[in-house]
Amino acid sequence: MKTAIILAGGKGTRLSKLRNDIPKPMMPILGKPILQYQVELLKKHGFEKVWFIVNHLYEHIESHFGHGENFGIDIEYYVEPAPLGTVGGVKALQSKLDQPFLVLYGDVLMDMDLSRLIAFHESKGADATLVVHPNDHPYDSDLLDVNDEDKVTAFYAKPHPEGLRYRNLVNAAAYVFNPVVFDYLTEGVKADFGKDIFPSLHQHLDVYAYNTPEYLKDMGTPDRLHKVEEALRSGKVAARNLNQLQKCVFLDRDGVINIDTDLIHRPEDFELYPYAADSIKRLNKMGFLVVVVTNQSVIARGLCTLEELGNIHKKMETELGADGAFVEAIYFCPHHPHGGFEGEIKEYKVQCECRKPSPGMLLQAQKRYNIDLGQSYLIGDSPRDIEAGANAKVTTIRVKTGHGMKPHTTIPNHYVDTLVEAVKIIEENE
Hints:
The protein is α/β, with parallel strands linked by helices. It is built from 12 helices and 19 strands.
């Protein structure tokens, strides 16, 4: 992939109190326009050409970048006669683009491993790939749902219908498109990708979601701008790039995050501990990836379907998100090795590599997110949790909730009352 489009026509009304003499994408962050961070990132990952879609005060952009002579990349401009949302300018470039291309928003600071994104798009044979991530305010964000293969099955533009339970998979405003997408864009019509295109695009094309913990934040308000500046200054932005090793806290589910009522198989039986969201939020703020790893033999036992388990997890993510907490991913093992249960699903009655105490789920996450296991933790309530953590060579913390009071010879690195105290230990070690 050699070509990218950057949507750089925004006025930046909310930022005008800081600067009203330049377009929003030229707002400086630590002395450099946000657009320049994007151009340098594209150059780093081998892109050869960038189209700027511009309008408001675009002369400032053209004056700074020219045609890319000083940036090692070819830059061209499309000046919108009138603003046509996020779609109009992209559609106008149809005749210029006969290969897959990347679309970025000019007010988003990011540090992504774009090569991973492109490899994902190509491996899936996708027509379109949307970058997604969890965030601390999913209730006012565009959200997606996906299947086990990361294929988009639903898109929920904000505002959401009342009572919606959702995956915390937020549209992060970065897209890879094949030219076939142009067939679903209308020339000369004002439209927005999130509101007008994505809710139905997955019904016609193969649309996939690339879930990443990497840093992508828009700076559309003064408060957000200051937060982005601080993240850049502190090194948080660069640290999240998946070229860098990530630190992670693996959480068992039942008995750690929620009250364990034994073989939970209905959303109405799932109840978070009152401290769960705040504890996870503290881990989020420390820069840890938070990944749930849970044995769910309810599938093998025939007590619920994969869809029903997904609804339980949607309830969990919705309730965590309402309190500003999120998990990066949920890994579950549906298997159970012992047969003889009424209603059991025989295809899941197998020995596997994912059921704890095997470390399979932790190792899957390690591969996907480039996790440094030596800097990571597992918090669980059962001996099999602790054994899985030890087998993966992470620091183990056992809590006394759930099955945590049952005696066992497996010795964790730490033994505490609840998830609250477990997080305190991690804070003290940081």
